[in-house]
Amino acid sequence: MNAPRSLGSRALVAFRRVLVALVALVAIAIVAGTRCDRRRDALAPRWAEAPSRFIVVRGREVHVRDEGPRDDPRPIVLLHGTSDSLHTWEGWARELRRTRRVVRFDMRGFGLTGPAPDGDYRLEAFVADTRAVLDVLEVRRCILAGNSLGGEVAWRTALADPGRVDALVLVDSAGYPFSASSVPLGFRAARTPVVRSLVRWVTPRFIVAASVRNVFGDPSRVTDELVDRFYDMALREGNRGALVERFRQSAAGANAHAIPTIRTPTLIVWGERDRLIPLARGQQFHREIAGSTLVVLPGLGHVPQEESPSQSLAPVRAWIDALR
Question: What is the number of structural domains in the chain?
Answer without folding.
Answer: 1
